[in-house]
Amino acid sequence: KAPLLEVSGLSVDYGLKGVSSRAIDSVSFALRAGEAVGLVGESGSGKTTTAMAIAGLLSPNARVSGGQVCYRGNRLPIEDDAAMRPHRWSETSVVFQGAMNALNPVHRIIKQIAEPCMLKLGMPRGEATARAGELLELVGIPADRGAAYPHELSGGMRQRVMIAMALACRPSIIIGDEPTTALDVITQAQILKLLGELRSQLNLALILITHDLSVVAESCDRVMIMYAGRIVEDGTVAEIFAKPKHPYTRLLIDSIPNPANGKKMIRPIPGDPPNLVNRPSGCAFHPRCPSAMGLCATDVPSFDKFGRSRVACHLHRSSQEDKVAAHA
Ligand code: SF4
After folding, report:
1. ABC transporter domain spans which residues (predicted)?
2. Residue 273: band (very low, low, confident or very high) from pLDDT cuts 50, 70, 90
3. DSSP alpha helices (H): ranges in the chain?
4. What does pTM read for this prediction?
5. What ipTM does the predicted assembly reach?
6. Does the CB atom of residue 285 touch ligand 1 within 6 A?
7. Residue 101, SS3?
8. How remote is the CA of residue 24 from the centroid of ligand 1, in Å?
């Protein structure tokens, strides 16, 4: 049986003033119905480009230079905005960060939720408004609050409205692009809990994009760590947190504050994220990697499978000893 979503060898380039840079490079993964996957990395790692490509929302200066995205076994026309319209919101929906910018300030929220039901599902206004009320209840907002304008709601409530809008056309996949970034810690936890509940209630697959690894710990089954446009580690949440293989994953975990052991502050990872126009040779992480060896500066590590997990690092290759010997 084909997975719900299959991304194979996907590469996307951005062109700016005649200069092209590769934002994502040979990204491959599959997503099953009802599965929750976290896509984690620093800004510029390619996580948002991956998600926008899947939703057919790439910016006009982006070009798909390789690979494909299949939904239920059928290739999606991800570069063709008009051809993607029947799919977007009906099969794959996006919850963006910063709901205040995404909502229309002059329309009542009930109208904004009813609109996709009318446009996409062809519902008459009365039916769409009734469905919008049900969707509000589903995300924990009393239906009679539907008359409110966005500025009359708290940040957490607005994000709930965004989730209701994303669910309006009964999609199978929800992409959350840093959906809790602008919220305080308690509201963040409530929104993540809501997404988890909706996921099991509606059998939704969830792709959660975040720079914060701790966000995925509670809400996801699997984590994919991205660096410089590539997935560098992919495994279950339990595996990644208990036994991270990639040095970058290890540093990401170490950077999470943990008051229980006296680590109160986020410890930033030393060095800067790479410049994608001038990408480091070999393993792109080598200038920042505490475990870098000679071959790391010259050889791109392959993305190897270890049981159910995958990692791209010369420290974890069956033929690693030969390669190290050859470069000694
Ligand atoms: Fe570090 Fe080398 Fe592994 Fe890259 S391949 S993460 S530089 S050890």
Report:
1. 5-253
2. confident
3. 47-54, 81-84, 99-102, 109-121, 125-138, 155-167, 185-202, 213-219, 237-242, 247-254, 320-327
4. 0.91
5. 0.99
6. yes
7. helix
8. 19
